[in-house]
């Protein structure tokens, strides 16, 4: 699914965070009646009329301020502007047009993005005539809303979704295996791509991807055809600091949404970071196949059991994805890069693996004989049968007598039994329990 990206921009205290919470349907952004409360970009998923999209809430822009906090806010807002498909420019209908609004309008006009102007805090539609002054910003007819009261939000979202990219995928691209490299900036993702493409020398073509400023690199390895989804800005030379590192996450999420397989690249000298864990968690929750590549392994001073200790540490930190194979590589020297490519083929096969209903139920029946399902207040969970519903990721539907009786630990036990027989290295497995007859 190619999700659109909506970015909410405006000066401090115009109600951006309240609008963000209203759009995503839950209270995530901090909302206080104090300028500059939202200092970091916050993102979540929104949905309107079947259109799924990512919403970014930015800190307030004040272009004339030069202090450190405002400088950081402007940095993260600029990254959001570069990434967004649609920008929602929010102004305060009570306070009226300000010089800061005009400055922000100048920034947005230069961005070349689609911009929708929303005049907020108009709790009474009869006061809509007070917004005429905002026409001078040059973004067409303003949308009159009240994020606090929820007024005009539906009309606003109707206008927003018009500008999201429509996913067009032909049968030729459906046959391609889409791979993206995820992880912190400066861990060697672009070097790894260059090593792979340079070594194989089988690039078909480089064409602009659907993600702004991204390049999709097509190549073939053995019997499979792949496309590397290069996250926006990956090849652009720019200073990497803590803010850019944090603010570039949204581009990575967009690449993950398009991908089949994600390669989590970790710097061997730093180990797993909090950002690595969050990004990997997003890929796992979205059912993506995973490989963990520990880069710069050639720079690590080797001691006894270093390899095993490092792997153990990774497994403990990323305990939710123990299925992901780990490979220690060097993008610079090419060490074990061929092994990584072999893993891509293996993981792709597992991601598409289908088990027959008969074999699956033999595994389930054997698992039940070895370990009875849980019971509660004298009622035992009964498993009738299972079937595989889909692949990529492998998804199994298991029919039982009462969903309330199924415990998480037994669900994990069944997953482990399936993996014991078929491995499924590199791919998550989804188990869906349904009550028979429903």
TL;DR?
By secondary structure, this protein is an alpha/beta fold. It contains 13 helices and 18 strands.
Tell me what the CATH architecture of the largest domain is. 3-Layer(aba) Sandwich
Uncertain regions spanning at least 5 consecutive residues: 28-41, 168-172, 199-214, 232-247
CATH class categorisation of the largest domain: Alpha Beta
Radius of gyration: 25 Å
Instruction: Tell me the name of the CATH homologous superfamily of the largest domain.
Output: P-loop containing nucleotide triphosphate hydrolases
**Distance from first to last alpha carbon:** 29 Å
Fraction in helix: 25-40%
Sheet with most strands: strand arrangement: 8-9-10-7-11-12-13
Number of domains: 3
Number of helices, counting only DSSP H or I runs of 4 residues or more: 13
Q: Which word captures the global form?
A: globular
Kindly report the CATH topology of the largest domain. Answer: Rossmann fold
Strand count, sense and closure of the main sheet? 7 strands, mixed
Q: Count the E strands.
A: 18
Strand content: 15-25%
Mean pLDDT rating = 81
SS-based class: alpha/beta
Family: Belongs to the TRAFAC class TrmE-Era-EngA-EngB-Septin-like GTPase superfamily. EngA (Der) GTPase family.
Function: GTPase that plays an essential role in the late steps of ribosome biogenesis.
Protein name: GTPase Der
Subunit structure: Associates with the 50S ribosomal subunit.
